[in-house]
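Hi everyone, sorry if this is the wrong subforum. Our group has a chain we'd like a structural model of before ordering constructs, and none of us has done structure prediction before. Sequence below.
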Amino acid sequence: MVDTDRVIGGAKDLGGKVQGAVGDALGTSRDSVEGRYREAEGKAQEAFGQAKDKARDVADDVGDYVGDAYERGSDYAREAYDRGSDYAREAYDRGGSYVRDGHRAVTARVEENPMVALLIAGAVGYGLALLLNNGNRR
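Answer:
Right subforum, don't worry. Here is the predicted structure as tokens:
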């Protein structure tokens, strides 16, 4: 999109050139100087319009870049969330499987040797009681 300052500046530049040329041809220094002034003013306004166009293009490019970066970041975050969820679900399933397997193994050992299981349970309970009792003394 062309900025209006570029169009108006170009017109002033052209008008100033014409006025300056007419002033030179007729020998009127006032028209010649005024024409050169309008020409310079037009060139400055046209350069300003070009700068605004360039700034708008850069801003659009930056906006596109930021938008793309946001989309990529969102995609990465979504992918990380999905992977994390999959890993957590897998760990949960494995943990449940390990607990069931451990429960079966302990149950089988207790059924095979109930007296040994009672002695081990009593020893563990006694050890825990000692630990708790020592912790309260401090």
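For your construct planning: The chain is about 95% helix and 0% strand. The longest helix spans residues 29-112.
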